[in-house]
């Protein structure tokens, strides 16, 4: 009888753990107005036409593709190129897999705008990118440009 009770408790605990849904919270980080204005001024001065997101990033959707779109809980497979605004490439890949929630805020906010097969170019102010700390060849407080193709999730 004691073994049956222990087995039942273990089975119940296992089933409860398996039935819990993974919680996905949307990233609501917003860039300060000063960063948004600086980035907007750059885009205007360079005649780059974009849409502006209320959270402070700018984007161009080349191919939006209808259908399911990733959430922050999803593992995504992407091709991407990251550049400083002077055109210097600091990172790129033809196929890389990440969990969206582990990436910078701007990616978490922008990638759910497109579906599989979609392409987006995003311009991020520092708060939505790497912030006030340098990261590799990216200087602190950098505005960044990313060209991203969503290959799958």
Radius of gyration, in Å, reads: 20 Å
Quote the average pLDDT.
Answer: 86
Element pattern in H and E: HHEEEEHEE
**Secondary-structure-derived class:** alpha+beta
Shape: globular
Strand order of the largest sheet: 1-2-5-6-3-4
The major sheet is characterized as:
6 strands, antiparallel
Compute the number of strand runs: 6
Task: Show unreliable segments.
Answer: 1-21
Query: Level of helix content?
Result: 10-25%
Counting H and I runs of at least 4 residues, what is the number of helices? 3
Head-to-tail CA distance between termini: 47 Å
Strand content: 25-35%
Describe this structure in words.
There is one protein chain. This protein is α+β, with helices and mostly antiparallel strands. It is 24% helix and 29% strand. It has helices at residues 2-19, 33-45, 105-110; strands at residues 51-52, 58-63, 75-84, 89-99, 119-124, 144-152. A 6-stranded antiparallel sheet has the order 1-2-5-6-3-4. Strand 3 (75-84) and strand 4 form a beta hairpin. The longest helix is centred in the first third of the chain and has 18 residues, at 2-19. Mean pLDDT is 86; it is low at 1-21.
């Amino acid at each position: 009888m004691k073994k049956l009770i222990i087995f039942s408790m273990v089975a119940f605990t296992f089933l409860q753990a398996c039935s819990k849904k993974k919680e996905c919270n949307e990233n609501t980080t917003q860039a300060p107005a000063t960063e948004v204005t600086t980035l907007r001024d750059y885009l205007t001065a360079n005649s780059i036409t974009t849409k502006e997101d209320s959270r402070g990033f700018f984007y161009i959707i080349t191919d939006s593709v209808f259908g399911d779109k990733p959430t922050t809980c999803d593992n995504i497979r992407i091709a991407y190129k990251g550049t400083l605004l002077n055109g210097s490439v600091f990172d790129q890949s033809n196929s890389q897999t990440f969990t969206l929630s582990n990436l910078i805020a701007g990616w978490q906010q922008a990638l759910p705008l497109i579906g599989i097969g979609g392409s987006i170019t995003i311009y991020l102010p520092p708060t939505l990118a790497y912030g006030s700390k340098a990261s590799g060849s990216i200087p602190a407080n950098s505005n960044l440009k990313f060209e991203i193709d969503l290959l799958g999730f």
